[in-house]
Specification:
Layout lengths: L2 H8 L2 E3 L8 E2 L9 E4 L6 H5 L5 E4 L8 E4 L3 H12 L8 E2 L4 E2 L4 E2 L4 E2 L4 E2 L4 E2 L4 E2 L4 E2 L4 E2 L4 E2 L4 E2 L4 E2 L4 E2 L4 E5 L3 E3 L5 E3 L5 E4 L4 E2 L4 E4 L4 E4 L4 E2 L4 E2 L4 E2 L4 E2 L4 E2 L4 E2 L4 E2 L4 E2 L4 E2 L4 E2 L4 E2 L8 E3 L4 E2 H12 L1 H21 L2
Parallel strand pairs: 2-3, 3-4, 4-5, 6-9, 7-10, 8-11, 9-12, 10-13, 11-14, 12-15, 13-16, 14-17, 15-18, 16-19, 17-22, 18-23, 19-24, 22-25, 23-26, 24-27, 25-28, 26-29, 27-30, 28-31, 29-32, 30-33, 31-34, 32-35, 33-36, 35-37
Antiparallel strand pairs: 1-5, 20-21, 37-38
Length: about 350
């Protein structure tokens, strides 16, 4: 592809030779002639200055030793460029002869159903959706249009997925919530988990993520939310729009995560609480109580990030502080003894 064409498709301002041939997008340190790279973090300024790429996607106030594609949002332009050069292969429409589709199921004519897929009674799969090998679509489940369901996914009975949903390998949607009632003798009786799971449009669900159904009501993931790998969403949870949950986040039952929240890796959220709109929680934060909208929290129990940074600095000094306090106590005791 000519660099000029790429600039036009990305809606970037081109500075340099538009007749250059470019073949792929790659990282700034690995880039070679014929590559396009991007610069969006000043930590990589040294790498930018010595890059061998033919062109770089960057912001308006930076210079590079090669052709430049300028934009106000380099990272977004980079994402679009990767899509332009990515492998566009899709499986052919139709049902693989080794798939098992129940008589009462409905599969759009232009959907693709891979080998060893099981589509159970009453399930529906929408137009242009792709279901890869070894997926199970449960009884009465619904898959919308233009979805991609990767291998080994289980979409349990009555779960509903909207349009353009992507589910990565091994995820489970609609598994039983963790609900038990204690008997008089201390044993436990399972509470039937008869509720539903709703995944709205444009949601992505990472590999080996699990989303539980509740006993009553529903678990809902609203439009545009992106879940990383190994995320656990418990029964009856509501996740708002455009939420980002990084790997190993765990959210306990009946909690509400409002719109545009970001939870970094290994954040844990207790049950029956609300995390307010726009909240950001840094990695390994524990959230035991509700959080006001717009908060920036860290640590366990979660406190404002600025306070946590101060506390962390003090924590490292605790051994020497303990020693200093012991010495002061000793001197005070000596002074008190002299004053008698």
């Amino acid at each position: 592809m000519k660099l000029r064409e790429l600039a036009e498709r990305l809606e970037c301002t081109l500075e340099g030779d538009g007749d250059l041939d470019v073949h792929r997008v790659t990282g700034i340190e690995q880039a070679a002639p014929g590559d396009v790279t991007f610069f969006a973090n000043n930590k990589y300024l040294a790498e930018l200055r010595r890059t061998a790429a033919s062109a770089v996607i960057l912001g308006p106030a930076v210079q590079a030793p090669c052709a430049m594609l300028r934009t106000q949002n380099p990272y977004l332009a980079f994402a679009r460029a990767v899509g332009i050069f990515a492998d566009a292969w899709k499986p052919a429409p139709g049902i693989h002869p080794r798939a098992c589709v129940a008589e009462g199921a409905t599969v759009a004519a232009d959907a693709s159903i891979g080998a060893f897929v099981a589509v159970e009674e009453g399930a529906r799969i929408g137009a242009r959706s792709i279901v890869h090998a070894h997926v199970t679509i449960g009884r009465g489940a619904e898959i919308g249009e233009d979805c991609v369901i990767h291998a080994q996914v289980s979409v349990r009975e009555r779960a509903r997925l909207g349009n353009r949903v992507i589910v990565q390998d091994g995820a489970v949607i609609g598994s039983d919530g963790y609900g038990f009632a204690r008997n008089a003798d201390g044993s436990h009786t399972k509470i039937p988990q008869a509720g539903g799971v709703v995944i709205e449009d444009d949601v992505e669900i990472g590999a080996n993520t699990t989303i539980d159904r509740p006993a009553v009501g529903e678990t809902r993931i609203q439009a545009g939310t992106k879940l990383d790998n190994l995320v656990q969403i418990a029964h009856g949870v509501t996740i708002g729009r455009d939420v980002l949950l990084a790997a190993q986040v765990g959210i306990a039952g009946s909690t509400t995560i409002e719109d545009s929240v970001t939870l970094a890796g290994q954040v844990g959220v207790a049950g029956h609480l609300t995390v307010g709109k726009g909240t950001i929680a840094t990695a390994q934060t524990g959230i035991p109580s509700s959080v006001e909208p717009g908060a920036f929290v860290s640590g366990y129990p979660a406190i404002p990030n600025r306070d946590w940074l101060k506390a962390s600095a003090v924590f490292r000094k605790l051994p020497e502080l303990r020693k200093a306090i012991a010495e002061l106590e000793k001197r005070l005791a000596e002074l008190a003894e002299r004053g008698r």
